[in-house]
Specification:
- With about 80 residues, this protein is mainly alpha-helical.
- The chain contains two helices and no strands.
- The longest helix has about 50 residues.
């Protein structure tokens, strides 16, 4: 659970940095600076998206393992009563 909280905090931090970069880009008039900041913001958002997807996959794996641990003994004992 602690690692999930840390991952969520990291994702929020990445998204916050991306928002800051977009805000800074709106203050500039130089096209190269704007493009660099927006590119940086997109890269941060992609990192956040990947981290979020990895977290969801880890949750899915954990739920699958918990289900197996719960279901397999029940299936085994249900099958042995016949």
């Amino acid at each position: 659970m602690g690692s999930q909280v840390a991952a969520l905090a990291e994702i929020a931090e990445l998204r916050g940095e991306a928002e800051e970069a977009r805000g800074l880009a709106s203050m500039f008039t130089e096209p190269d600076a704007i493009a660099d900041l927006l590119s940086y913001a997109r890269a941060l958002e992609l990192d956040a998206d990947r981290s979020e997807e990895a977290l969801h996959r880890a949750d899915d794996i954990l739920l699958t393992e918990k289900f197996r641990a719960w279901a397999l003994p029940r299936l085994f004992f249900a099958g042995s009563s016949h």
